[in-house]
Amino acid sequence: MVIVRFENGIWEAVQVSRDHAPDEPDEARRIISHKGRIFAKNGDGPPRVWLAKEDRPGLAMTRSLGDRA
To answer: What global pTM score does this model have?
Structure first.
């Protein structure tokens, strides 16, 4: 997410968050340390996060609100 601010007559874009993609090294460490798995479905598409012993939920993102799995 980016916000824009106007200061001293200059517009500036400020990054306030970043993607939490499963293939980012710090996110991959976090997922694996919590017994998650990371792989692309059928070897194709984006890396997804999977439960330790089940092939679900297969999220293509690593953080969401309200998702107990």
So the answer is: 0.65
